[in-house]
Amino acid sequence: MRIASFLPSATEILFAIGAGPDVAAVTFECDFPAEARTRPHVVFSHLPPGLTPAEIDTIFSAEGAQGRSLYFVDLPALTALAPDLIILQDLCRVCAIDSPTLARDMAHLPSQPRVVSLNAHSLSEVLAEIELLGEITGHTTEALALTASLRVRINAVANTPQPTTKPRVLCLEWLDPPFQGGHWIPEMVTLAGGIPLLATPGEKSRRITWDEILASAPDIIVVMPCGYHLAETIAQFRALTLPPEWATLPAVRNGRVYAVDGTAYFSRPGPRLVTGLEILHAILRGEDFSDLPSGSVARLS
Fold first, then answer.
1. Cβ of 48: how many Cβ atoms within 10 Å?
2. How far is CA 105 from CA 87, 88, 99, 102, 209, in A?
3. Whole-model pTM above 0.90?
């Protein structure tokens, strides 16, 4: 089987279940595991490099309002690779390839690949999609073993004795303008022992205002901008102009503002979300981060 993965989380899943040798093509963003970087890229972005978060949001908003996508497929390269299976997503409109154009192009591929679209909004749905990809690729045993191990880790967090007073937690998926973390993020906060603010489990991320943030009075703030690793997140936060009232928030007064590697552990619906859950658990419990992956979390204030 020759597989073309049109999203980084699917690439991670495929390698995690032993289907890595069958991955023939990936996106320009597929950076994990390291072996994935050696595969040909067939999905790219029209976005120029070096844009600020505000500039990116402006472009995405304008293009989205016109029904256009900033991602595109190198169709000649994809045709030459002759995939049997293409995996894409229908979860995030911002990151999706233009669907009508894609459907038209896929119909003309000589290899006539099967197309599977992933759309998980919760941890349980992510696990189900891991098992689905295992079944489709002939790696059912490996997929079931992986999801079983992930459930053990999820349960270990969920079954930890809860504090008497649960902290109120705000997760920021984008900084300029601010967006709250949606989809599986509120569920992860709840499992880790917190109360998610300005978010509903399973619902999409949405733009929020600084007034909403100030009114929510979070005890803990976790900064996790989508598409950015830890060092980039810290740099973004330091460059951000915050409202004067920011200093009055309980999280800021008590030194409970954290940055995490959103790309690796929170944005992509794959196996490493469970590591993200463990990171949140450590943050909420005020533990040190020595047992967590290097470069996964840092205290901002």
1. 8
2. 14, 14, 10, 5, 39
3. yes
Residues 6+ apart with CB under 8 A from 80: none
Q: Copy the structure tokens of residue 30.
A: 């597929």
Of 6, 211, 219, give the one whose Cα is nearest residue 103: 6
> Dmax over Cα atoms in the chain, in whole Å?
61
Report the DSSP pairing between strands 85-89 and 220-223. Answer: unpaired
How is residue 207 annotated by DSSP? B
* Three-class DSSP category at 119: coil
Please calculate the CA angle 275-280-285 and round it to the nearest 5 degrees.
125
Q: For residue 102, give the nearest of 58, 72, 147, 144 by alpha carbon.
A: 72
Which uninterrupted H or E stretch holds 9? helix 8-16
- Going by C-beta distance under 8 Å and a sequence separation of 6 or more, which residues neighbour residue 44? 27, 28, 71, 72, 74
Instruction: Compute mean pLDDT per 10 residues along the chain, 301 residues long, and list them.
Output: 94 98 96 96 87 88 70 90 90 59 75 90 96 98 98 97 92 95 95 95 90 97 95 95 96 97 96 98 94 95 84
